[in-house]
Amino acid sequence: MLRLICTGAQRIYGKLEPTVIDDELLTTACFAQGPTGEAGKLAEAEGIAFASVKQLSLAYNNILKIGGIEELVNITTLKLDNNIIEKIEGLDYLVNIKWLDLSFNKISKIENLENLVNLEDLSLFCNSISVIENLDQNEKLRFLSLGRNNINNLKNILYLRQFKHLDCLTIEHNPLCDEEGYENYIFAFLGKLTYLDYKYILPQWRAKAYDKYQIAVDQMNEAQLEYEEKLVEAHKKALFLEECRKAFIDEIIGDNLFNAMFKKDKDGQTLIKLSSVAELVEQYPFPLPPNISSFVLPSYACKQLFLTGQEEYQKRKSEEDCLRSCIEDAKQDSKRRALESIEQFKETKKAIRKKLDDLYQDSFPEVAEALLSDLRQAIYELWNDLMGNEVSLVDQLEEIITDFGRNMSEMVSQFTESVQVCFSKVRESAGSFNERLAEMTLTYAERLAKAEQPQKTDPESSIYLDRDNLVSALNNSKEVHVAVIDKCEENVNKNLKQWLENLIEDLHQKEEYERHTNRVIEINMYIDDQRVDLETNELPLI
After folding, report:
1. CB neighbours of 398 closer than 8 A, spacing ≥ 6?
2. CA–CA distance, 361 with 359 (Å, rounded to integer)
3. Which end of the chain is more exposed for a tag (fewer CB within 10 A), N or C?
4. Cβ contact 151:186 at 8 Å
5. Phi, psi (rounded to 5 degrees) for 144
């Protein structure tokens, strides 16, 4: 019966045939709900800019499918209730929406809402939903209406524990409400909820519910706290790794370089399993075989480069912040001077207009023409002042960016020298390791060859039975190590150089060319407007 009532409510108003959202429907709705009077006439004359629409109702239109609303990018409230919508879709571009009403439709699944990160109020009242899901990205959710659906499992409520701001929940007239004590279950597990089914949750109700489910609630709270702590740690780690990437030292964090060396060195992985090599292995930084439990620290050279890289990154970041601050100060100073010139021009224009109004009454065309000539000269002087001010700013920005580029190049050169020194030491360390590894493995192979009784060997140890194969494996291992070290150094230098080139190019493009072009266009448009006013003799004040 309830479903029939809901379905009937959808048909009270609107069209008889299913429809889709198109420009005509949107335009009609915007005009009907938009401003009235003169503002409405102006909107009708100029047309609707859908990107400017903040609130819109498309209820009672027999809409079958959501679509065609991509231009409503700034909308904050959208009502699509009382239609025949079967699927949530077509909302990806509505990232600013805060209130979405999809009640009284035929929706069977919650989906495709992940882009609506600002959503606070979601109504899905009177639909066909059976599972509460796919709302993980809607962290700001405060009001959720799910009444009159097909939700039959009380454990669906646990999904809502993740929403820290959830204040009001409507869940009435779902199959789960037939379970005895369902309200206590919600009170207990949604401890921050304030209203349930339009009723304020009294403290004594919540306390009674907590007593009943205390053990389970405490366990969940503890697990959730642990999970949130892990998220915080993961976030910190991600920020740290991102900072290392920007500092171009992400490949030498901890044992990363040495992990890469031995990951690609299959022969080396076999050779270091020899028990007599264990002591040598402990002195060289890379993950050890299973029979050695500890991990050694990265080499001193890499550690020093890592610390130097962090310091140099902070210096470069500070220099860039200082640059952008100087650029902003220069632009603000230029803007102030431009506004002063415009204000001065406005005063001149106002005075000339007053004189013209007085003169027209007494009909002195010669004097009027002289005043108009003065105004033409004032317009030209304004253009000259504004363009001169702009050229001055361009020169100033060019000088600032050039000095910045010079300073940054010196910083990059210093860091490049540190990189070169570090990797030279790493190569020396790798060479020493390979020499000692060769000495130990060849000695073991000779002893094995001279043994009177043949020793049992596993397949991995068979490499020691053939000296030529052993020498080849040692050479391959050394070449792999050198190649990985060279590649890492090349990546650091290449990425550092590319970053500086991109930064300088971006500064020139955005702060000089694009900004300058837009500014010149603005100046010329403003001056053209003044000249048009002059020639038409309308002279409106700006």
Report:
1. 512
2. 5
3. N
4. no
5. -135, 120
Structure tokens at 126: 């009177």
What does each C-alpha distance from 471 to 267, 281, 461 come to in angstroms?
11, 19, 14
Kindly give, in sequence order, each residue whose CB lies less than 8 Å from that of residue 79, ignoring residues fewer than 6 positions away: 56, 57, 58, 59, 101
Dihedral of CA atoms 444, 449, 454, 455 in degrees, nearest 10, equals 10
Amino acid at 154: L
DSSP run (H or E) holding 224: helix 214-246
The span from the CA of 54 to the CA of 49, in Å, is: 11
The pLDDT tens digits of the residues spanning 253-263 come to 877 887 788 77
- Return the DSSP state at 118: T
Element (H, E) at 445: helix 365-450
Task: Give residue for tokens 């090349």.
Answer: 490
What is the length of the chain? 542
DSSP single-letter state for residue 296: P
What pLDDT, in 10s, does the model give residues 330-347?
Answer: 999 999 999 999 999 999
pLDDT at 1 over 70: no
Separation of alpha carbons 307 and 296, rounded Å: 18
- Cβ–Cβ contacts within 10 Å for residue 532, how many? 10
Q: What is residue 473's predicted lDDT score, i.e. its pLDDT? A: 81
Phi first, then psi, for residue 272 (nearest 5°) are -75, -5
- Please give the Cα distance from 81 to 60 (Å, whole number): 7
Confidence class for position 289, pLDDT limits 50, 70, 90: very low
Query: What gap in Å lies between CA 509 and CA 278, rounded to an integer?
Result: 57
Q: How far apart, in whole angstroms, are the C-alpha atoms of residue 354 and residue 347?
A: 11
Domains of the chain: 2-174+189-197 (3.80.10.10), 259-536 (no CATH)
Give the pLDDT confidence of 176-220 residue by residue, as tens digits: 998 888 899 999 999 889 999 999 999 999 999 998 888 988 898
Query: How do 199-200 and 195-196 pair as beta strands?
Result: antiparallel
